[in-house]
Description:
Layout: H1 14-22, H2 32-45, H3 49-56, H4 59-64, H5 71-80, H6 82-93, E1 98-101, E2 106-110, E3 115-119, E4 126-133, E5 144-151, E6 155-157, E7 167-170, E8 174-181, E9 184-189
Parallel strand pairs: 4-9
Antiparallel strand pairs: 1-4, 2-3, 2-6, 5-8, 6-7, 8-9
Helix pairs in contact: 1-5, 2-3, 5-6
Amino acid sequence: MRISDLHFSDETELTYSAITQCLFKKENENGAAEYNELVKELIKNAADTDDFVASYLDEANAVKHNYYKSECYQIMLKIYDNNKAKEYCRKMLGRKYRTTISDAESLKIGNKNSVMYIPSLGTSTYTRYAILEKNEFYADNIMTHMLSFEGTKFNIYLQDKGEENKIDKVLDNGKYSVYSFDGIMALVKE
């Protein structure tokens, strides 16, 4: 197969432009030569675009060749394999994740002065979330940035509905960016 035979397009052509833009690394990027050769080899050996995508998304291969956290890998996961994308986000949260109960498919954050309900973009009654440092967060091309906030003494509540406001976790003072994907949320401390 040749590079020109790849077809990452959808009705709007957004998929095509998103993937082709990042499929190869720029020559001055770290490890570009080895990575670009690997991608060319995967294309050459693929029967069609789906075969290439399956080979490219092989987790062991991606980790071995150091593109597991790359923009292109994440974009392809999100487009071609929602289940793997969800698992990818779960792995990023690691053992830090906590679970809240969500009737409104949101995470309730606030204090005595104000409350925010941030959509989890999921369909479950449970929301998984983790508080991560900036250097621990790497699923920014899969997850949707919901909002940023800054303040002191913000609580994360165990439930997003009802009058009982049990606190699940208290956030450290500071600025946070909130990302969400399919019921998984990352609160990234800036």
